[in-house]
Design a protein that fits this description.
heterodimer; A: alpha/beta; Rossmann fold; Alpha-Beta Plaits; 2 domains; nine-stranded mixed sheet; two-stranded antiparallel ribbon; 10 helices; 11 strands; 35% helix; elongated; B: alpha/beta; two-stranded antiparallel sheet; 13 strands
Chain lengths: 283, 290
């Protein structure tokens, strides 16, 4: 069962929930934690494991072969991303705009734009007690997170297909990267905070999940701040509330140091257990 | 006109709260824009009333005409995004997976594929209760091209600031370091980073700084909730000094921020006596960054 932990708003507790929930599940079931917040991966701050493997992820980008090129001029219009441009007698490829669709390369009549591998990011695999952990990290300066997220999910398919739980720590927002990280999930946990910002962004994330057609439930973090509008919203929209995690300055301070909350805060453990019970009933 | 972009790497560090407070301080001399287009929140504080609403179209998605498809499978074989699937004897594009490259359109021997333009969302120029103009947007649910919408919103905001002869454009950016952030950094004069003293935020800040350096934009930093972990706050300040980022302020962990957000206000409105001098000093400091 693949479970993505997502949110519209950033900083609502995705990573906190992902690392602690995965640790709890791993006590009794084979579990993988996959950090897909590839722009800013943080699960590794909390999960200290033994590194078992490093995989360099690459993306394919065309490279101009001047000798083979007849300057027929067909390639620039093939590229929808303006990554292939002609300047006089030169063809220039702008790798940062390329989406690796291969169109220019495979449609070129002279095969003058062969695809070449360029760095994309790093996928690292760890083992921490019973938990398998994979962290995916985008190279800084690259714009597109989605190709690395897709490769990381394939990596999970290859190595951990038989695991009972795959917990995905997703990127924030409701756009491409978040959709790439959630669209293959069997179930999504949306985590929010009870403020107008949290609620508005939750409603966007809910609409996105409904658009994708993926079942989801909601966890409210920092319960006690803000107001209770989110409860009315969940009831009105008939959305399952999985748990409320109480607000506590001690939890925030513990998080800041990179400490696990599981087994340290009983009110947190209780919420975690409710979520785990719900997941068990679904699997 | 000076363009200042507020970003954080990590989400939830208080970007929008800081932008709201600074906007309130400088409301007579700036235009504000919300470039966190897929989770925009500034409108909850600014109460904008749109005076201009525009549709934004960008990019394409492939569509296969079922009456023309001959079922040859060429498109599905060549699609790098696995966006084309078989339905009975013919093929269909799964819009969510389509990257809009148009390769299939060139390949199809039956001419069955068209590439209609996509509606990405809407953007607005609004009057606000602060008196300053807000340029903001709403990305359509499930829509791609957030980076292009960010670029559009920012360019419109820039043009508006010039028309209104304001000296500043203040940009509320997205979390992360990917395409929307890169779009919001392009052309900026200064960056304001909002961080918090946690190992996560610290790591995210360092990755963000690596990105900012590629653009050679000068930066300043605010540490929000600095008293949550004083040791890490000290570490962050040492690091800021070492790499040449101006530290503008430590903000303490104060329920004023939650009260402000919950009531649709800036902290400067909720507790003027405390926050007005602090954010005035931050704004004055920001004006000097170059």
């Amino acid at each position: 069962m693949r479970i993505a932990i997502a949110s519209g708003k950033g900083g609502t507790g995705k990573t906190t929930l992902a690392v602690n929930l995965a640790t709890l599940l791993a006590e009794t079931k084979s579990t993988l934690l996959l950090d897909l917040d590839v722009e800013e991966p943080n699960s590794g701050i909390f999960i200290k494991g033994k590194e078992l493997g490093v995989h360099k992820a690459v993306r394919m980008v065309p490279q101009w072969d001047q000798k083979a090129c007849s300057l027929c001029g067909k390639c620039p219009p093939y590229c929808r991303y303006n990554a292939v441009i002609r300047l006089g007698d030169y063809i220039m490829v702008l790798p940062e705009l390329c989406h690796s669709c291969h169109a220019c390369s495979e449609l070129c009549p002279e095969a003058a734009l062969p695809m070449q591998a360029m760095p994309l990011g790093t996928i690292r695999q760890y083992r921490a007690d019973n938990l398998d952990f994979v962290e995916s990290r985008l190279d800084i300066g690259l714009e597109q997170a989605s190709p690395l997220i897709a490769q990381s999910l394939s990596y999970a398919d290859q190595h951990f297909a038989t695991h009972q739980y795959q917990i995905l720590d997703s990127p924030p927002g409701t756009s491409c990267a978040m959709i790439s990280a959630t669209k293959t999930a069997d179930y999504v946990i949306l985590i929010t905070e009870p403020t107008p910002f949290g609620l508005y962004d939750l409603s966007l994330a809910v609409q996105t999940m409904r658009h994708l057609g993926i079942p989801f439930g909601v966890v409210i973090n920092r319960w006690g701040i803000g107001n209770s509008d989110v409860l009315d919203y969940l009831e009105r929209e008939d959305i399952k509330l999985l748990a409320k995690i109480p607000h506590s300055r001690e939890i925030a301070s513990s998080y800041s140091k990179g400490s696990m909350l599981y087994h340290a805060f009983s009110e947190f453990d209780e919420a975690l257990q409710q979520i785990a019970t719900h997941l068990e009933a679904r699997s | 006109m000076k363009e200042i972009v507020c970003i954080s790497g990590k989400g939830g560090t208080g970007k929008s709260s800081v932008v709201s407070a600074l906007s309130w301080i400088a409301r007579e001399n700036l235009v504000v824009t919300d470039c966190d287009v897929d989770a925009a929140d500034l409108h909850l504080i600014f109460a904008p009333v749109a005076r201009q609403t525009e549709e934004f179209h960008s990019g394409i998605k492939a569509v296969i005409d079922p009456d023309k498809c001959i079922g040859c499978a060429l498109c599905a074989q060549k699609c790098r995004f696995d966006a084309i699937v078989k339905r009975g004897k013919i093929f269909e594009v799964q819009a969510l997976d389509c990257e809009g490259c148009g390769y299939c359109y060139h390949l199809c021997p039956a001419g069955a594929i068209t590439l209609p333009e996509q509606a990405v969302g809407q953007w607005y120029i609004s009057d606000t209760r602060f008196g300053c103009s807000l340029v903001h947007a709403r990305l359509g649910i499930g829509a791609d091209n957030s980076g292009k919408l960010v670029a559009k919103v920012k360019n419109e905001a820039k043009a508006l600031a010039q028309r209104e002869t304001k000296d500043f454009l203040l940009v509320d950016g997205s979390p992360g370091i990917g395409c929307p952030v890169i779009s919001s950094l392009s052309g900026a004069d200064a960056v304001l980073m909002v961080t918090e003293p946690s190992l996560s935020a610290q790591s995210d800040l360092q990755r963000l700084w690596e990105l900012i350096q590629k653009f050679r934009i000068p930066a300043a930093c605010i540490i929000n909730k600095a008293d949550i972990n004083p040791d890490i706050s000290v570490q962050i300040k040492k690091w800021l000094k070492k790499v040449g980022i101006r530290h503008l302020a430590d903000l303490d962990y104060d329920t004023d921020f939650q009260i402000a957000i919950t009531n649709g206000k800036s902290v400067t409105e909720v507790n003027y006596a405390k926050w007005h001098p602090i954010f005035t000093a931050i704004w004055d400091g920001l004006k000097e960054i170059q």
